Amino acid sequence: IFGGISSMLHAEEVMLHGDSVFLGEAEGRMQEVFADFCRNALKISPIIGRLNQMLKIKGTTIYPPVVFDILDNMEEVHNYIVEINSSDFGTDVLKIFVDCTQIYDGIEKEIKDRFRAKLRIAPELCFLDKEELLKMQKAMEQRKPIKLIDNRIN
After folding, report:
1. Which of 43-57, 63-77, 114-128 has the lowest mean pLDDT?
2. Confidence band for 57, pLDDT divided at 50, 70 and 90
3. pLDDT for 13-40, tens place per residue?
4. Cα–Cα–Cα angle for 136, 121, 63, rounded to 5 degrees
């Protein structure tokens, strides 16, 4: 298909996705290779994400940094923790614990609508006050505050 590409990719796993090829290395990084037919050369994109962080929710593939980006760009959200669980059907379930600056009637709908517009999913939301959320973040006793809790069964 890409003429000579197989000799260059001997150690990597190749997954076809649309008009490009994904390279999955032993470390679990994902990069995208684009075939440029005019020059007989390949272009490699920056690292997209890590395979073990990839979420599959209702047929949509999501990386946690995309969820973080949505929440960080909302003025109403002060702090948050994203929790990932496994469902009985083998898919991932996204639950977000949110500390909002102000809680009003339409805040839950507003956050879910933002997720539907960007990712086509609506996560489960749980509103907590600042102290409860900080307690959850410090429970893991790590240097940096926790933004992601992965409880999936692999």
Report:
1. 43-57
2. confident
3. 444 444 444 444 444 555 555 555 555 5
4. 60
Distance in angstroms (rounded) separating the CA atoms of residues 63 and 35: 24
Do 43 and 34 touch, CB atoms closer than 8 A? yes
More confident residue, 140 or 29: 140
Kind and range of the H or E element at 78? strand 77-86
Contact 14, 23 (CB under 8 A): yes
- The C-alpha atoms of residue 64 and residue 49 are separated, in whole angstroms, by 9
Ramachandran region, residue 120 (left: φ > 0; alpha: ψ -120 to 50; beta: rest):
left
Going by C-alpha positions, the residue among 93, 66, 95 that lies closest to residue 153 is 93
State the burial class of residue 55 (Cβ atoms within 10 Å of its Cβ: 0-12, 13-18, 19+): buried
- What is the SS3 assignment for 146? coil
- What distance in Å separates the CA atoms of residue 101 and residue 129, rounded to the nearest whole number? 9
- No. of H helices and E strands in the chain? 4, 11
The one-letter amino acid code at 121 reads I
3-state secondary structure (DSSP) of residue 44: strand
